[in-house]
Design goal:
The complex is a heterodimer of chains A (238) and B (617).
Chain A (H helix, E strand, L loop, with lengths): L3 E6 L2 E6 L4 H7 L23 E6 L2 E6 L10 E3 L3 H17 L4 H9 L19 H10 L5 E3 L6 E3 L14 H5 L7 E4 L2 E4 L2 E7 L6 E4 H11 L4 H4 L7
Parallel strand pairs in A: 1-5
Antiparallel strand pairs in A: 1-2, 3-4, 3-5, 6-7, 8-9, 9-10, 10-11
Chain B lengths: L6 H14 L6 E5 L2 H5 L2 H14 L7 E5 L11 E4 L3 E3 L7 H10 L9 E2 L6 E2 L6 H4 L17 H6 L4 H9 L2 H11 L11 H10 L6 E6 L8 H8 L1 H15 L3 E7 L3 H16 L15 E7 L8 H8 L23 E5 H13 L1 H5 L9 E8 L5 E6 L4 H8 L9 E6 L5 E4 L9 H6 L8 E6 L4 H15 L5 H18 L5 H17 L3 H5 L2 H9 L1 H10 L13 E3 L9 H5 L5 E2 L7 E2 L9 H5 L5 E3 L1
Parallel strand pairs in B: 1-2, 7-8, 7-10, 8-9, 11-15
Antiparallel strand pairs in B: 1-3, 3-4, 5-6, 11-12, 13-14, 13-15, 16-19, 17-18
The chains are: A alpha+beta (238), B alpha/beta (617).
Chain lengths: 238, 617
């Protein structure tokens, strides 16, 4: 049986199971901490730094990423302090310099009293939260995309910038992207993603589109079922 | 050599090897450290070998190719034992004379002696050289006494005796208690108490446990770990084996930059030799304790010196840090308890075991014990590696050991702690070198880089240089470090181009604090330090760039104009000869001019003029 821990978040007593992150514990009592790179389906990553909170340990306080830091008995957490807000303000302004127009970022900025970034804008779109890369690896399980470069040259790409050999065209990366910068297009029985065309499978019974052929082949492989198991009927005519 | 099966056998071998050392036998110790190698020491060694062979003296006079002696400024250098005569800036053609006159004839060659720039007197012996006099070379000093490729040399001076001692005593906890009592703190930068780290790893649950030596030294201008690995690899190994025994680990790694080929070569050889002799591997010295070490060569990313990024790199992933809310001592490499220490920390261990915790704790300040090796570089007369007791003042290091600033220029700042350390001005030079004192000034001990700057260094430019380095070395994972350092650097670019605004300084300070607070690892967590400390101590220089559009040090190209002082110009034509665009012109023996239209502000004329006639406005 797992152990229950009692801690204080913004002055409120909160009970949470050991192993819960501060972000989850806060959410359980409806204290919302802004975050961009955290997703409950993925392992904690702690890269965007929007979810920073201030914790007190004895006389000392320090900032930690609430998406990683786990609850501790008696821990005092403040989710809104001047230090915390300064980090969030900086982070959102820095991200707006890469993507000055996306509503999600603009809303987060507005919540912090920021209309626009003071930094020089160089539009890149992607905010490098890594949700796509981690979803592809941890949820889909194919690692078709990854990061290249370091520092400001870091970007998400396919191996050697070519058609990704392991991609199953499932589109999870595009779906999870918080700023919608991964292009995905379905047209005339073809899905285009990562600059590559993938044929879409039609239901053998009703003719509706089910999913990319490569995705169904991947399902067949990991479930050890014949491909026909996934192509004979679709969710609509099963 | 055959395997040593017990501490007693080791002792006997040490004594035998030591007895073979004839203290009166002439020995030529040639520094073969990286600095001297770059000066052409290889040719010097060959010439010595040749000349000794020609005179049939190879049996009578020994030649020792040692690691770095530290005084890199004066290389190539030799020390002639037993008198310890110190010759510096030696050329290949000096070799026959050294053998004939000094070694065979006991005559000192005056021109090869070191001349003290302060007293103008020639110094004969190594121990009288002011550069060495104030040092306390406990860890680094052994470099001059051994050939790093010969385990026999290390054994002869008592090497692996500390290991034998702890294995004989058979009490791992006592070893940790000793290290704790000695007050040893991590030399890699953080200054974490080593004993506490060992203890935590020993107590942690999980198996196997790993012991790692961090040799991913990457600070610009720093080479102390490199010189230890190159010059005395067995001391690092011995420290690691003792640590592994104390912690209860049988797996070790040395993570070393592949850009350090000689360090890789020497440590690889040292591991092979130690294993061959039963000092590494299974059943070390017949004690039943097993421990072996694997070398992992790093690709040179600065961030891989950060422990969690280093683990990722060993595990075969990209070198990106992760949050360290769970300590590496509980979950480090492969999520197993891991004790990671820096090269210099490991090299201190045998010393503490041999001489005792009490003795060690007697050196240094209240909370910083022992010695620290610094690489003293930049605008300093005596460039090199120095080992000093903790508590010595920065002034003593810069002016007494370092010999002050070249060309009689004025000292401006010293940067400690590598690229993410801070710049300390003259007013604070009397503070003792101590982990806590340095951090109070906004800088840190770091791994031991010490860069000296003079009046011709622009502090804004210096801050920009280090930010640029860190911007390129940021792994790019977290936003504040990746984007924040980049944007800070862009603001500094604007300031040095004369386009800065006064509010930029507030923005820089605000960003600096938020980046320190918000970054994932210590790289971002300390990256703003050069900017924050220069703003703290040299704010007027920033303001001069912004308000007056001037660079007081005459460095920032956009803000300076080169001119010629007609009173000082002798018409020597040196400026015109080096000017790449033909901007500097004039008839010989007439006052020269600079055509501002053509001038690209490369500064070649400024460097070339011997009469200080080139002005910077």
């Amino acid at each position: 049986m797992s152990q229950t821990v009692t801690l204080t978040i913004d002055g409120r007593q909160v009970q949470a199971e050991a192993g819960t992150t501060l972000l989850e514990a806060a959410r359980s009592v409806n204290i919302q901490i802004p975050h961009l790179c955290s997703n409950e389906e993925l392992a904690p990553y702690g890269a965007c730094r929007m979810c920073m909170v201030e914790i007190r340990q004895g006389q000392r306080t320090r900032l930690v990423a609430s998406c990683i830091y786990e609850v501790e008995e008696g821990l005092e957490v403040q989710t809104v302090t001047e230090r915390v807000l300064n980090v969030r303000r900086l982070v959102i302004e820095l991200l707006l310099a890469r993507n000055p127009t996306h509503p999600t970022l603009l809303k987060m900025a507005a919540d912090l009293g920021i209309e626009k970034t003071r930094f020089e804008v160089e539009v890149k779109g992607c905010i490098l939260c890594g949700l796509c890369v981690r979803t592809c690896r941890e949820v889909v399980g194919v690692s078709a995309i990854g990061f290249e470069g370091r520092g400001t040259s870091r970007r998400v790409t396919t191996p050697f910038n070519e058609a990704p050999p392991d991609c199953i065209a499932c589109g999870a990366c595009a779906t999870v992207c918080p700023v919608g910068v991964i292009p995905l297009k379905d047209k005339a029985g073809i899905r285009t993603i990562w600059k590559t065309d993938y044929p879409l499978q039609r239901c053998e019974s009703c003719g509706r589109i089910i999913a990319p052929v490569k995705q169904l082949e991947y399902f067949a492989k990991i479930t050890n079922q014949p491909l026909s198991h996934f192509t004979e009927h679709c969710v609509h005519c099963r | 050599m055959k395997k040593i099966k017990s501490a007693a056998e080791l002792n006997a071998l040490q004594e035998e090897l030591n007895a073979r050392l004839d203290p009166n036998k002439p020995c030529i110790a040639i520094c073969c450290g990286t600095g001297c190698m770059a000066h052409g020491t290889r040719n010097l060694v060959e010439r010595f070998q040749q000349e000794l062979a020609d005179r049939q003296l190879t049996e009578k006079i020994s030649l020792r190719r040692t690691g770095c002696h530290g005084f890199c400024e004066r290389g190539p250098m030799v020390v002639l034992h037993p008198q310890k005569i110190f010759y510096q800036r030696i050329k290949v053609d000096d070799v026959p004379e050294i053998i004939d006159k000094t070694i065979l004839g006991e005559e000192i060659i005056d021109r090869l002696l070191y001349r003290d720039p302060v007293t103008k007197e020639k110094v004969v012996h190594e121990y009288e050289v002011p550069f060495y006099k104030k040092q306390m070379r406990l860890v680094f000093g052994m470099n001059g006494m051994i050939e790093p490729t010969r385990i026999e040399d290390y054994l002869a001076i008592g090497g692996y005796g500390a290991l034998a001692k702890v294995l004989t005593q058979g009490d791992p906890q006592a070893v940790i208690d000793d290290i704790s009592a000695a007050g040893l703190r991590g030399r890699g930068g953080g200054g974490f108490p080593t004993g506490r780290k060992w203890n935590a790893t020993r107590k942690a649950e999980g198996s196997p446990k790993y012991v790692i030596c961090n040799a991913d030294e990457g600070d610009p201008g720093a080479y102390m770990d490199r010189s230890l690995l190159e010059g005395n690899p067995h001391s690092v190994l011995e420290g690691m084996i003792i640590g592994a025994y104390a912690i209860g680990s049988s797996h070790g790694y040395i993570y070393v930059r592949n850009e350090y080929p000689l360090a890789v070569e020497n440590i690889t050889l040292a591991i092979d030799k130690a294993r061959e002799m039963g000092l590494l591997g299974q059943d070390i010295l017949g004690s039943g304790f097993d421990f072996d070490i694997v070398i992992n060569r790093g690709g040179g990313a600065f961030v891989c010196g950060e422990s969690s990024a280093l683990f990722a790199s060993i595990e075969g992933r990209a070198g990106e840090p992760r949050a360290k809310y769970v300590h590496a001592t509980d979950k480090g490499l492969y999520d197993k308890p891991t004790c990671l220490n820096n090269v210099e920390t490991w090299a201190n261990v045998p010393l503490i075991i041999n001489k005792g915790a009490q003795w060690y704790a007697g050196i240094g300040t209240e909370h910083s014990k022992g010695t620290k090796i610094f690489s003293l570089v930049g605008k300093i007369n005596n460039t090199g590696l120095v080992e000093v007791p903790m508590g010595i003042t920065l002034r003593e290091i810069v002016f007494e050991i370092g010999g002050g600033i070249p060309k009689g220029r004025k000292f401006k700042a010293v940067q400690t702690g590598g690229p993410s350390g801070g710049c300390i001005p003259e007013a604070h030079l009397d503070i003792p070198v101590d982990f806590d004192e340095l951090s109070k000034l906004g800088t840190m001990m770091g791994s031991g880089g010490m860069i000296v700057m003079d009046e011709r260094n622009c502090m804004v430019d210096v801050a920009k240089y280090f930010l640029k380095f860190l911007e390129e070395e940021s792994c790019g994972k977290c936003t504040p470090c990746r984007e924040g350092i980049y944007q800070m650097r862009k603001i500094l670019d604007r300031i040095t181009n004369g386009e800065g605004k006064l509010e930029d300084l507030d923005t820089l300070e605000w960003m600096g604090q938020a980046i320190k607070d918000g970054s994932l690892c210590a790289l971002g967590g300390s990256a703003p330090n050069p900017v924050l400390t220069t703003l703290r101590y040299f704010r007027s220089e920033y303001e001069a760039h912004i308000i007056d559009k001037k660079c007081p040090a005459g460095v920032c190209k956009a803000l300076i104009t080169y001119g010629i002082d007609p009173d000082k110009c002798t018409g020597c034509h040196a400026c015109a000869r080096v000017c790449p665009t033909g901007a500097a012109t004039g008839e010989k023996k007439e006052v020269h001019q600079i055509d501002q239209e053509k001038c690209i502000k490369c500064g070649a004329c400024y460097e070339a003029c011997k009469f200080d006639a080139i002005t910077i406005v």
